[in-house]
Write a structure and sequence with these properties.
- By secondary structure, the protein is mainly α.
- The protein has a single domain, classed as Growth Hormone, Chain: A (Up-down Bundle), CATH 1.20.1250.
- The chain has nine helices and no strands.
- The longest helix is centred in the N-terminal third of the chain and has 33 residues.
- The radius of gyration is 18 Å and the shape is elongated.
């Protein structure tokens, strides 16, 4: 008896890996780069905590994304909504990479960062729930559990790749986190945009 993964399961797993790569990459950036670029307070600990709070915002948006995208998936179709979730994540991630720094536009920068992080959370929550459902629906009856669990592997792979790619993050920004100068903020903003792209 051989159990097969359906094409829908493979596509869902790859899509989940891509989504979670973007979602997890933000966590690394929140710890290493974003405190200097978006939260230039006199206290590096407060800036880092503020940056990590924006990371948490995405997790709070995930259940809402799962519900909203799930309902729309029932009405419009799961494949269409999975494509929409990929677009949401890609657009939000690209716009985060293009955001001007706090030094350039002031408090609007962290406000836009939080809003884009909410969009990322909505996309990640909707994609994860939809991927598992679509995998289960397109699987043979005897392989339904295996197919429904496969997108979870995409979650782990995406997170691992994001963690591994963080080793190529702008090292100069990591060393400048303690200096907190406007020049450091501008150079890290340019490095962040290049790294996130």
């Amino acid at each position: 008896m051989t159990l097969r993964l359906s094409r829908a399961t493979i596509a869902s797993t790859v899509g989940t890996a891509l989504e979670w790569y973007d979602f997890s990459l933000y966590g690394t950036a929140a710890a290493l780069v974003l405190p200097l670029v978006f939260f230039p307070s006199g206290d590096p600990v407060a800036a880092t905590l503020s940056s990590l709070a924006t990371f948490a915002v995405g997790f709070f948006a995930r259940p809402v994304g799962g519900i909203v995208i799930g309902v729309l998936g029932d009405r419009v179709g799961r494949r269409t909504m999975l494509f929409v979730t990929l677009l949401l994540m890609a657009a939000a991630s690209t716009l985060i990479g293009l955001l001007p720094s706090y030094a350039a536009i002031g408090p609007a920068a962290p406000i836009m960062l939080v809003a884009l992080r909410v969009v990322q959370g909505l996309g990640a929550g909707g994609e994860y729930a939809g991927a598992m459902l679509m995998s289960a629906e397109h699987a043979e009856t005897r392989a339904r559990g295996l197919n429904a669990s496969a997108p979870t592997l995409g979650n782990a792979v995406g997170s691992l790749v994001a963690t591994g790619s963080s080793s190529s993050s702008p090292r100069s920004c990591r060393t400048k986190l303690s200096s907190r100068t406007a020049g450091a903020s501008r150079s890290c903003s340019a490095s962040w945009s290049a790294w996130a792209a």
